[in-house]
Amino acid sequence: MPYLEINEDLKNRVVKFSGDIMVSRGQVHQIKNLDGYVYTEDDHIISCVLYLINGHDCEIISIESRQEGQGVGSKLIQFVIDKARKNNCNRVWLITSNDNINAIRFYQKRGFDMIRIHRNAITEARRQKPSIPMNGYEGIPIKHEVEFEYIL
Question: Which of 50, 106, 117, 121 is geometrically suited to a Cys-Cys bond with 34, CB 3.0 to 4.6 A?
Answer without folding.
Answer: 50
